Amino acid sequence: MDLQIYWWCVLSLLGGLFVFMLFVGGGQSLLFCVGWDETAKDLIINALGRKWELSFTTLVMFGGAAFAAFPLFYASYFGGAYWLWLAILFCFIVQAVSYEYRKKKSNFLGQRTYEAFLVINGTLGTFLIGVTLSALFGGAEFSLSEMRFVSWDSPWRGLELLASPSYWLLGLALIFLSRLGGAMYFINRIDEPNLVAKCASIIRKEAALFLLFFLGFMGVFFSANGYYLDATSGEILSRPYALALSLISLPVLGVCFVLGVVGVLASVWLGARASKVAIWAYGVGCVLVGFALLAAAGLGGAAFFASTSHPASSLHIYNASSSPYTLGVMAWVSLLVPFVLAYIAYVWRALEREQVSKAELESSEHKY
Amino acid sequence: MAELASVDLSRLQFAITALYHFLFVPLTLGLSFIVAIMESIYVKTGSEQWLRITHFWLKLFGINFAIGVATGIIMEFEFGTNWANYSWFVGDIFGAPLAIEGLLAFFLEATFFAVMFFGWGKVSKGFHLLSSWLVAIGSNLSAMWILIANGWMQYPVGMSFNPETARMEMDSFLEVALNPVGIVKFLHTITSGYVIAALFVLGISAWYLLKKQHFEMAKKSMVVAASFGIISSGFLLLSGDESAYLVAKHQPMKLAAMEGLYRGEERQGLVAFGVLNPDKKPGDDEPVFLANIEVPYMLSLLAKRNINEFVPGIDQLVFGDKQRGIMSVGEKMLLGAQALDALREFKKAKSEGDTQAMSEAKSELETNWRYIGYGYLKNPAKAVPPVATTFYAFHIMVALGSLFVGLFFVVLYLAMANRIEKFKNILRACVACIPLGYVAAEAGWVVAEVGRQPWAVQDLLPVGVAATNLASTSVGVSIALFILLFTTLLIAEVRIMLSAIKKGF
Known about the structure:
The complex is a heterodimer.
Chain A: H1 3-21, H2 23-29, H3 31-34, H4 38-49, H5 52-69, H6 71-80, H7 82-101, H8 111-138, E1 142-144, E2 150-152, H9 165-189, H10 193-223, E3 226-229, E4 236-239, H11 242-249, H12 251-272, H13 278-298, H14 324-334, H15 337-351, H16 358-363
Antiparallel strand pairs in A: 1-2, 3-4
Helix pairs in contact in A: 1-5, 1-13, 1-14, 2-8, 2-9, 5-6, 7-8, 8-9, 9-10, 9-13, 10-12, 11-12, 11-13, 12-13
Chain B: H1 2-45, H2 48-82, H3 84-118, H4 125-154, E1 159-162, E2 167-170, H5 173-177, H6 180-210, H7 215-250, H8 252-259, E3 270-276, E4 289-295, H9 298-304, H10 314-319, H11 329-352, H12 355-368, H13 387-416, H14 424-450, E5 455-457, E6 461-462, H15 463-466, H16 472-503
Antiparallel strand pairs in B: 1-2, 3-4, 5-6
């Protein structure tokens, strides 16, 4: 297997994991929906507060892996869509302090402000991520110079993507998906029957909205034209139904996608019945769907970041990647990842024997 | 002009975010070790007092850590948003350490951190202690990879220029990872963090003694902090000395700016104190200093390990010194321009399928690519970093560093002799040294980063080429937003910290 393919798969897997971890943001967006009093809010914040750093780290990892494995993508995507990415980063900066500072004395901005920051991160931040990810399926207008320096066509530097209604679909789908995940996480982690019942009710109501936007996204992007690298001429050419064809021509991805969708639907069914295992089905489903879609955007010769104004500047895994030597070195390092993940799982298993409850919080040494 | 302003604004934005970030990182690096030491004493002795001491400093660590994470995310993504050309040009090398940092250090750190804060009573004492030590080691490992990447920008090794992709590509990961400049930079930076953390604990404990509160616990904290500070200062001093030696070897222009040295000589003295003449320009006959105190031979000794050696000054480096085999910037600019021409020829020949011309252009490029960055300079004076900023920042850093060493020794002696509470002025000095520690660390960064201007990557990529092609207004607005947001969060952090300190152990 090409190292480029390996690293695109790693990046796609990280993307899938990040989609799963967005449940933290989704949970934050539910703060005022299910946190009817101070105790309920405390339970929510403390349940999420023990995971927020993992979601944050996954985003950082996605950026780091993109930089290391596909530096031209990193340069073009982040340097090009400047304002869109800065808006996302601002949403994540405010998240990072909000848990720790929310209830601290003399916190300057007041508890409500930090709670508002968490809601902003969980809604606006998630939405903007959906819009930027859409650029991987629908492309953007940019060009590369002979030295491969990026020029972004629009002076709005990424904000113009917000003017495209089709790019909203993934953003909105992610908002509702993450809210479902947040509710399922609360059902799993919080020992408070009223809160659990509310979460199950939210899952029943909002699942339809998620499906609506996700099916809209599939309808638009599965039928849209896409770009690919023609192996014989070395040129970037256009083809219809590019994303759908990728999923069909790479059956492993197609199967992952279908299984993932089934997983998410099963999690909704379970979550609506307040089942504690819903979050696990949700997690597997999100990772599989996220992985399959991102992988399909870059494998099989597809141009994963297409330039709709200068197709020749489109990025595929071969022209955007690091050298084989660097990819090889990093591939060796990546073999340690399963051990790191196993350790993380072991630690969290030890820490989470007990559910978050009022009594547990009272006895806790560190609480938010 | 507009383009130039955009580059300068991107530099300013990066500098501001880096300086903010570095207000929190050093304390995290050092305080994590101090907390781990305190917890070790608790586990060993079983003393409830040591447990309270550990909890107290851990609480302050958590407040600081949150904002460090918040400011850190910007640093990673700013390489892409503001330095897109740089990201492509060096991504093949810079990306690897950054990815390893994220892959191993970040994930592990986040998990150890969770145990450290939420694991009390849920995991065994031994496992908790291990996690506290691993938070300290994990944080420092994160710093290692980012500083190796930074070290590569100061002294690029282990790579070659690929004309096909028009970028630097890594040939040897070991050379990059074991780059002496990166290693020394890592040691110097983390030990400066340890000193800041020691000053932080010392200052707050001194404040309690002045207020006659938490007497026992404050004194115990002081002993730990002063001991930790003395050991750290030793390493800081040694790594600083080695750092200056490597700067002299690989970035002589930076050393000349640090010392305000325009015409270097054999047996060169070291300026211990000086007021620079603001009218001084490279190549003119104006005096360099309005007033200065020099230690004879010392710069030759520190920079070359030999008092008789020659140390080049700015004039010699800009205009060359044939006698001593120093090439002028003008000559390097010619070679750099030839390298860029050869690259263009290579690209043209490739598009025309002319393999003969490609081979010739490649050969020409291979001869001169080490000077490729000089091909972008408009005139030789552009190769000189801002001398006054570098000079004063360096001297402030050294003066404060020396002051801290003295303070640690005095405090440790008095605390061990059980007399520290009687020396109110020493206690006040401890409190005053908390902000001074940050001043010294920030000054160190100014020396390292302003002193290497105009280069993003030494000799290979000037900042003007490295920046993303952005409108000045865009960067101007984002700077204003960053300042507003970070200052707000900083005020919140300081107020929360002060409130927690006021509450005490």
